Amino acid sequence: MDFLIHHLLRSSALNYPEKEALVHGEQRLSYAEVAKQTAGLAYGLRKIGLQRGDRIGIYLEP
Question: Which of 20, 31, 32, 48 shows its CA 20 to 30 Å from the CA of 7?
Fold first, then answer.
């Protein structure tokens, strides 16, 4: 079975929008909230000219 993680997240957002998807300390996000935030990030990246196949770096603070 070949799929990408965003396919799983999209499916979960459609089927279980209110279920918890991510928990970090006191912060909790539902699948619908994760989908909304990732769609916003994707839109912002496309708006600045990034296209499918382009590579970007991501910095995550510990």
Answer: 48
Q: Is residue 27 part of a domain?
A: yes
Task: Count up the domains in the chain and report the number.
Answer: 1
pLDDT tens string 32-44: 999 999 999 999 9
pTM for the model stands at 0.78
Residue 53 in domain: no
Q: Which H or E run includes 12?
A: helix 5-15
- Asked if pLDDT for residue 1 goes beyond 70, the answer is no
- Encode 17-38 in three state secondary structure: CCCEEEEECCEEEEHHHHHHHH
Centre a 10 Å sphere on the Cβ of residue 35 and count the other Cβ atoms it contains: 19
Q: Are 6 and 38 in contact (CB under 8 A)?
A: yes
